[in-house]
Amino acid sequence: MTAPTPGANVSGLLDVKNLRVSFAGKEVVRGIDFFIAPGEKLALVGESGSGKTVTALSLLRLVQNAAISGKATFAAQEGAVDLLSLPERVLRGIRGQDIAMIFQEPMTALNPLFTVGEQIAEVLQLKKALTPAESAQEAIKLLADTGIPEAARRAGSYPHQLSGGQRQRAMIAMALACQPKLLLADEPTTALDVTLRTQILDLLTGLQQRNGMAVLLITHDLNLVRRFADRIAVMEDGRIVETGPVAQVFDKPQHAYTRKLIDSRPARDVAEGRADPAAAAVLQARDLRVTYPLPIPGVRGWFRKGEFVALQGASFQVPAGQTLGVIGESGSGKSTLALAALGLYPHQGQLLAAGQAWSRDAASNKRIRRAVQVVFQDPFSSLSPRMTVEEIVGEGLRVHEPGLSASQRRAQVLQSLVEVGMSEAQFPGLLQRYPHEFSGGQRQRLAIARALIIQPQLLVLDEPTSALDVTIQKQVLQLLQKLQREHGLSYLLITHDVDVIRAMAHQVMVLKDGEVLEAGSVDEVLERPQHPYTQTLVAAQG
Fold first, then answer.
1. Could you tell me the sign of the dihedral formed by the alpha carbons of 168, 173, 175, 180, in that order?
2. Tens digits of per-residue pLDDT, 371-403?
3. Which CATH architecture has domain 1-98+180-263?
4. C-alpha–C-alpha distance, residues 82 and 285, integer Å
5. Which stretch of 226-240, 288-302, 330-344 has the lowest confidence by average pLDDT?
6. What CATH number was assigned to the domain covering residues 267-354+457-542?
7. Is residue 109 within 8 Å of 91, Cβ to Cβ?
8. Where are the domains of the chain?
9. For residue range 222-231, what is the model confidence (pLDDT) as tens digits?
């Protein structure tokens, strides 16, 4: 469907005028205007805190403790209505029936106490007055329509029993149960692997075309916008700064903020060249194997356990000053490999970190613990909320250099923070602040400072930027590149983002179902992939 241009003589589905949303007198959405035509796909893009999600939630008045004003004219079944002034009883009938919403994280949006089939059936009973038997059959059909295999069996599964992609499909099935006119999709693919993102996009496109449904896509993923949307509205600090057809905005962005977003693709700035063959690798493995015990059903399970092979026969090395990128989907064995490298999982085969094998004796592992540090995916959960910045960053010194005085330790903490771009001048009282007082990118810098302070040889980077906006992601990657050049650090980089691998890695290893499918230099693997799975990963990134 060709998207209408602003001002065209079309019958709009949703027309928003002067929308304002404020919390305790602070305005977070500042008088924005936009419209959506029937069957159109509009992408609302911007960084965290720009007001995207609040805008979508305010249309259905799902934002608590917010003052909302303006007008949102919607072409409901009974005629044009203002969503912002409707009585709650009437608006409740529109939610789910005419306007549905897909939330960012289905694990928190789905009820863990009910099966996905029961949750979809509940919508059908409430909105379409179907009988329990009819709604159960319709729920199975909706799950099948979203591409979930064995839909009848999966309808009886609880959310935790489904994969991330299956949970998102179940959420889509629930949202589309009543064939709404408008779907609000809030970051529907952010938590998914790149190939799953493509599948969910294709699914939404197919369902949108089949049902003639309009979509408001909220995202910061510009690759997603290119592939999916008709028009784009760019949002910064509560204001829409640019709108237009996707091709026009990407080819000739007018606003500086739009150009900043488009230019935020990770850039490669690493020391090139081959590793010194005479130098010992910081991390090396040969035929690495990791298994988990599995219960065996029935009487046999009383006497022995089965096993699940999470990683099978992986051989690799990480030279000094270089990065090995490990890429694959969820469940491929990436995080298992990282945890084995950190000595946190028992393993079979040879694994040497800083020239030493991990031992069951904690005291003998102390030297390796100093040489190998980790930066996790989500700094908000990996930094203690009860510890100050000084305590968090200086924690490693208390373990590995207990002889330092408090003043010496504080001096090293300040120096480590300066190295990651944070100082007392920028953040008064920095050392006594807590993690919640910082943004996501700043918290990740704190996590990097904590790892660097004991001067490790290797950093294990477990999806270090996947929880960050594109502009912040670029800043963190630039910081990691700078630290590698200055300190000769080695990185074991775990990610599902091909762009991050392309920007950071010297060598690449592709994992699927615990096995290494392909390995080699970044140019060999990403520019000339040999395995069909690798080709799919690269193609899906766009």
1. positive
2. 999 998 777 778 999 999 999 999 999 999 999
3. 3-Layer(aba) Sandwich (3.40)
4. 63
5. 288-302
6. 3.40.50.300
7. no
8. 1-98+180-263, 113-178, 267-354+457-542, 384-455
9. 878 988 899 9
